[in-house]
Amino acid sequence: MAVNNPTRSERSTSSTNGKVHADDMRSSKASPVMNQRGKELQKYGTLRMIPIGLPDKARQENIEALNQILADTMTLRDLYQKHHWQVAGPTFYQLHLLFEKHYNEQNELVDQVAERIQTLGGISIAMAPDVAEMTSIPRPPRGAEPPPVQISRLLEAHEMIIKQVRAAAKQADENGDDGTNDLLVSAVLRTNELQTWFVAEHVVDTDLVHAD
Ligand SMILES: [Fe+2]
Fold first, then answer.
1. Ligand 1 mean position to 191 CA, how many Å?
2. What is the CATH number of the domain that holds 105?
3. Computed over its alpha carbons, how large is the radius of gyration of the chain?
4. Which end of the chain is more exposed for a tag (fewer CB within 10 A), N or C?
5. Residue 108 domain-assigned?
6. Does any domain span residue 188?
7. Contact 162, 109 (CB under 8 A)
8. Kindly report the CA angle at 12 between 9 and 13, in degrees rounded to 5?
9. Distance from the Cα of residue 78 to its chain's centroid
């Protein structure tokens, strides 16, 4: 690609009477090559060969399911961070800490699911605008909502993901992709079920001081 760098002969004539011209003060050899664009190595939605002994059809099916789970997991992760920042009220501190813990655990799942997609020969969804187009989790308002509403949104998002994960794990089992099945069941499903329990207990209407 063409870059506006001086040639070797131009550089060698850059100094006259001990003065260096402003244009020649930059060493092109030591400067980074900027503004580069080129063809994609692999287009989103296509499959590349990876020698892990799985048929293309199985890899393609599981990549598609994993990308949907990835988009929804990234959205749930960001929902936890939004609520970590915006939570208010008497339970502020415990929810602030719990939401951060779950955010970190979801972030770990995002990395594992994305790397599984790459391992299968696919392309992982990555950027926020693409995630926003793909996710099935409803968009919350920008403003702060009270804790019961925050928790309802989280529980609904968890359940949507859990249902998808069970279906994708079954598909992976049926098409012989044990690695994907293991990731979905051992990591994604179990983390989401456990987080659901921790969050759901906060909206059980118990007596605080006097029992019925
Ligand atoms: Fe924080």
1. 21
2. 1.20.1260.10
3. 25
4. C
5. yes
6. yes
7. no
8. 95
9. 9
* Ligand 1 midpoint to CA 85 (Å): 7
Q: Encode pLDDT of 116-171 as tens digits.
A: 999 999 999 999 999 999 999 999 999 999 999 999 999 999 999 999 999 999 99
Q: How many CB atoms lie within 10 A of CB 100?
A: 15
Query: Cβ neighbours of residue 162 under 8 Å, at least 6 residues apart?
Result: 189, 192, 193, 196
**Residue 66 is assigned to a structural domain of this protein:** yes
* Structural domains of the chain, count: 1
How far away, in angstroms, is 92 Cα from ligand 1 center?
A: 13
Cα 103 to averaged position of ligand 1 atoms, centre (Å): 10
Q: What angle, 0 to 180 degrees and rounded to 10, lies between the N-to-C axes of helices 190-200 and 147-174?
A: 160
Q: How many CB atoms lie within 10 A of CB 208?
A: 4
| CA of residue 194 to ligand 1 center, whole Å | 22
Assigned domain for 161 exists:
yes
Its domain, for residue 100, covers: 56-202
Give the global pTM: 0.88
